[in-house]
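Training component of the fellowship. As part of building independent skills, the fellow (R.M.) carried out the full modelling exercise for a liganded target. The chosen ligand was iron/sulfur cluster. The inputs are recorded below so that the supervisory panel can assess the work.
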Amino acid sequence: MQPVVKHLYVHIPFCARRCAYCDFNTYANLEDRIEPYIAALCAELTLLAQEQSQPSHDSPLAIVRNDYLPPTARVSRATLQPSIFFGGGTPSMLTLGQLERILHAASALVPLDTAEITLEANPGVLLGADMAALDYLRGLRELGINRLSLGVQSLHDPTLRVLGRTHTAAEAYRCFAAARRAGFTSINLDFMFGLPGQTVVQWEAALAEVLTWGADHFALYALILEERTPLAAQVMRGQVSVPDDDATAAMYEAAMYYLAAAGYAQYEISNWARIVEQQPISANGHGLCQPDDLDSSLPALACQHNLAYWLNSDYLAAGAGAHGHVYPQRYANLAAVDAYIAAVQAGRRPVAEWVPLTENDLYAETMFMGLRLNAGVSLAHFRDRCGVDLDVIYGDLLCELAQTGLIERRAWGVRLTERGRMLGNQVFARFV
Ligand code: SF4
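Fellow's submitted model of the complex:
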């Protein structure tokens, strides 16, 4: 039997050092656990592949294949590439041999030859790799990893130090240039704004500079001060200050302006892709909108893996603390590295929690994830994913949101207005 879920997230929970703002499930100084972790990860992938091919009656994957859902709801209309996403943590701490073993195990779930395979990389770690960064990056390409996501975060060295990053802006650029030389044609750069001490003018200067690099994709997120992080504590104590909401909103607007002017299409609230010759890919093919609405099309360099999330597709996840979603359940793996390894060594799926999803969850998630996309949610996509017409479920709410100027309704579906994008969280909350 062919696997039914074609997207896989792989979590690598190791970092050389913890950044001051980070609350991800990641650990420093656990280098001695990396080898047993890789062995456990490969074993978990094998267990997942066995469940996918031979679902037992009590497996949540089995529920998907039974007649629990109406037939039209089983498969998203989305025609996304299969995908594997190595996130973390710092996946670039792994050796090429370790990555090769994981990919070999993952190949039972996702066809490697047609997949988008992304690896998150930290410039500080790449430069500190045992082998030269260029050789390491070439090795990644040879393994079939075809998309690199570099965590640059800022081009201001004092700010990078406050954030606890282990690289400078110049080193981040060297990594980017090395990745290009190694043959990566799809490189994302992660940046944050609303950073300690940052001004709008500084942010605009950083945008102007980084846009000369010629990256393929940007993911730009406002800093969130997570509780119990060292940076949040510093802000509480008044040792550092962060821009207020108005300044952060101005930085977001500046990003939209600068990136559009430089030839990048915003296709999601925080994501932009470089516009290339063959675009636009017909968004109609992705079930997102109609072909007469090309301003809502997906850019060719859009991240396929993240699109799977925004289209509320099913995805598997492996690794400590990883979250998977296979309707009608989602699951969260054990977060602690040792507990995760022990569970897999005992021959079990290392799942800490199964969360059943109702039909209302499916409808709500399809809306609040899909509305993050500039293309919005098409009637066809909602019907294919949920097995029911959008207006039957949300007709009254959509009328109200349209009257308040937060969404626009078109013949093909709905999407956020510019105002709705600025107030996205308020809109999303209405669907929950
Ligand atoms: S490198 Fe990334 S995952 Fe690791 S501590 Fe820093 S922000 Fe967190």
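The panel noted the following from the submitted structure. Residues 34-53 form the longest helix (20 residues). The pocket of iron/sulfur cluster is lined by residues 15, 18-19, 22, 24, 26, 88-90, 122, 151 (CB under 6 Å).
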